[in-house]
Amino acid sequence: MSLLELKNVYKIYGDLHALDDVNLKVEKGEWLAIMGPSGSGKSTMMNIIGCMDKPSKGEVLLDGVNIAAESAKNLTNIRRDKIGLIFQQFHLVNYLTAVENVMLAQYYHSIPDEKEALEALERVGLADRAKHLPSQLSGGEQQRVCVARALINHPEIILADEPTGNLDDANEEIVVELFRKLHEEGTTLIVVTHDPEVAETAQRMVVLRNGKISKETVNENFTGHIRFH
Amino acid sequence: MTKRKMYFRMITASLMRRRSRMLVALLAIAIGATILSGLVTIYYDVPRQMGAQFRNYGANMILTAADGSFTKEDMDAGLAIVASADLVGATPFRYETVRIHEQPIMAAGTDMEAVKKTSPYWLIEGEWPAGSGEILVGENVAENLNLKIGSTVTLSFTPEADEGAGASENAGADDEVVLDNMIDFVVKGTLNTGGSEEDYVYIPMADLEELTGIAEEIDLAEVSISTSGDGLNAYMERINTQVPAVHARLVKRVTASETTVLSKLQALVLLVTVVVLALTMICVATTMTAVVTERRREIGLRKAIGASDASIIQEFMGEGMLLGGVGGILGSGLGFAFAQFVSVNVFSSTITLRPVLVPVTIIVSIVITGVACLLPIKSATKVDPALVLKGE
Amino acid sequence: MFFRMVFGTFVRQWKKMLMIAFTIALGASLATAMLSVMLDVGDKVNQELKAYGANITVVPKQSSVLDDLYEIEGGQSTGTYLREDELGKIKTIFWAFNIVDYAPFISARATLDDGSEVTVVGSWFNHHMDLPTGEQLDAGMNSLRSWWEIKEGAWLNEQTAENENMAMVGVELADKLDLHVGDPVHVIGTVQDATYTVAGIFDAGGDEDGQIFVPLDSAQALDDLDGCIDSIEVSALTTPDNELAQKAAKDPGSLSISQYETWYCTAYVSSICFQIQEVITDSVASAVRQVADSEGEILEKTELLMLLITILSMIGAALGICNLVTASVMERSSEIGLMKAIGAHNGAVTGLVLTEIIITAIIGGCVGFVVGAGFAQIIGQTVFSSSITIQPMVIPLVAVLVVLVTLIGSMPAVRMLLHLEPAEVLHGR
What we know:
The complex is a heterotrimer of chains A (about 230), B (about 400) and C (about 425). Chain A is α/β, with parallel strands linked by helices and about 230 residues long. Chain A contains seven helices and ten strands. Chain A has one domain: Rossmann fold (3-Layer(aba) Sandwich). In chain A, helix 6 links the parallel strand 7 (about 155-160) and strand 8. Chain B has about 400 residues and is α+β, with helices and mostly antiparallel strands. Chain B has two domains: about 5-55 and about 260-390, no CATH class; about 60-165 and about 175-250, no CATH class. In chain B, about 55% of the residues lie in helices and about 20% in strands. In chain B, helix 2 (about 20-55) runs parallel beside helix 11 and helix 9 packs parallel to helix 12. Chain B is rod-shaped and about 115 Å long. Chain C is α+β, with helices and mostly antiparallel strands and about 425 residues long. Chain C has helices spanning about 1-10, 15-50, 65-70, 140-145, 170-175, 215-225, 245-250, 255-265, 270-280, 290-330, 335-340, 345-385, 395-420, 420-425; strands at about 55-60, 80-85, 100-110, 115-125, 125-130, 135-140, 150-155, 165-170, 185-190, 195-205, 210-215, 230, 230-235, 285. Chain C has a six-stranded mixed β-barrel with strand order 3-4-11-8-10-9. Chain C has a two-stranded antiparallel ribbon with strand order 2-12. In chain C, helix 2 (about 15-50) packs antiparallel against helix 10 (about 290-330). Classes of the chains: A alpha/beta (about 230), B alpha+beta (about 400), C alpha+beta (about 425). Chains in contact: A-B, A-C, B-C. Chains B and C meet through helix 2, strand 3, helix 5, helix 9 and helix 11 of B and helix 2, helix 3, helix 10 and helix 12 of C.
């Protein structure tokens, strides 16, 4: 059984079909990239997978559970337990330090553990910046805090929405490198991006266009390292 | 680390690291709490303070002899019934007709120090008599008899013919003249009241006793008590029943009017307090609403990383209520300071802290900030986290 | 375009703008209510203090002392009187408007049937006057002796003709003679005797309890003293005394011309006394210190109290508005960053933000003024049972306050906006 399966998913806003009969399977441990121009339905799909939105029609099976049929409250719980989110705009709580931001995810999930949170920061190379506020961190560092926060609860899926959209090449490479390590550890990764360089790093890439999957390519020479053109 | 520790760590971080924004909110709450505790203190204190001002109108109770005459001791017995905190002053008066330059004049023996308390409105030109041999002359008397401040005046008093052994025989037998008692006084001041007091002269009680040769007798005592309405009536009844020698009456003109005016003043302060409080509390509430609304994105983020609505409400409410508590503590202190300032400046007297007001102020602040936060937080948790996080 | 943008803000952000307007309205209503009440509280409390009765007495020159002194000896009056026909003139003095009530008095010593002496006092009860100014005034003891407790019957009504031979009897005398409402009392004056019907029995808590009060002409008839009065009690709204007033009270001649003008044109009790003396022949008007002084004191304290409460609530309102304006302007940082990014100058941005805020403030201020005036009326009606006059000066005061507070409130936010780096904002910090 696949970890995530979208079956005939539609998302309809009035006349607009943001998602139009999408079928997608994601296996456990897979690294998937979703690409597409603006308005292609990327964000809608990301929201649905991230349990922040429900499809108008169709089934979304996460670990065998149809999240399309769950209540908002259960969705929150599923998101908390199974999904780690990374955003383009980082979205850190600006008055909490790096380590506290990581602990926040632990807090909502189970029990905050500062040691574990520090270890997570160490994994993203920010052990020495743990006591800094987001405003004292660079964009790349902030995004790494987000990665640490996303992985702290050992989610089934890490869902990243344009994780490198606000980063320069150097930081982009650091973040992608973190993804590679996570992939090696067996974490399922879904990266939504419009950056072909980031997308091509993944094992498999689907391209969305007008709410439909228009192209699906498998990366034959997957290394997990980013290649700049 | 326990969840609770993290909870407090988050709240304190929010309060400490967002200092300027939190100060804005804290200021609003503290001002609200200041107004609450300040105005309520003043409201409770106004009757007492204003009551004291109304004592400017002079005595509100008159003691007279129940039967014939009464003495200073009877008066003191009556006054002992009045709580010492309520007693502003009591002045004994004794009236005798004396003669100055052979003109009959009403002389009152009294206690000058006590008069200052019971009749603060007496306007003295010159000085108050301070001791024996000094006299205060009513303005009309001074004008009529041409008495100047600093001049000396002789009071003469004709003792009543001895009604004892053989007085009548003597009167018939010869024209033996009863000798006048005479005492010289220095005019220390003249008295202006706009009333009948201007037609009297006032001398120390001891001098009058010496002049007349009759001691320990009082015609009437003016008592000024800082209570009104029922409290005053109760005192009057207790004096009348417990001290049979004394008959206490209320000065209707003073007491009836005081009750009317004082109750109006208190109603005024009450209404003003209510209006100001209501408006201030709404002001505090809108400020808190704005402060919370500002953080919608943060609420969305917390939801996205898995916070339940309940825990978000719990955190933000905790923060708001902590703020409310601190604001309440600050406000109750500042409010007391304000009330004290008002009291010192307006009434020239201090007020005592009402301990019960402190917890009340704090609780009200907490409740108001809590309610003010709850509504915007609730509406913020309804927001789809995806929308909040995506936009802008 | 500018106005289109301003308009756009209101249409799109109406909720936020409504909240600012609401808070400003609250602040403005608080300021309006408190200022109105504060400015009017003096007059209102002054009116209430009229309960204490007259604060000025007018007696004939020379007579006062002798009269009282010889009364001690039981002698007769000396025969100096004020003239009844001059009474109306009191309402023509400079401060006529401040004279709220007055009544003439004449007392006659009369003998009752049982031979005991009694004082019969003639006065006005609810005397109706048509003043030369066209005003109408009901003056007399009904209001000047408001502390009298009517034990039986009711206040004598002078305006109904059938009451001409009515009398009010003190409770002590009534007890002594066992009089009740409707009973006749026969008194013998020096010239005439009369029979009165008891209209009411009062308890005054003083000497008056042993006296009989009748309409003025009834008492005059007893001694054949038509048109004569002993004294006038005047109740006037006064300004608390200051140094000038005290100096003037001693001798108005000692003042310089400008001081004299100031004194004469201020409602000090001494200047009102002086003006009464000017119109009533051979009279001495003096302040009843017990009433006049205390009135001043209580008025001053009440006004000061209200002033301090007003200041406190204004500070509260000002801070509340400041807070909200600051918070709401800061909230719009991203929008303003965008405007700067597409080329708006600082001046344009500031102008836009301030125009929006000021328009909101004006709307809120107007609503607040109306609501505040309403609050003031509620206070006036509830406490004093009369409406509070909204002084014209309240309007500019509130307007200046609202605009100033709003501008000050936007200041820190505007400063922050000016330092805003568009790039920073747009990249979502």
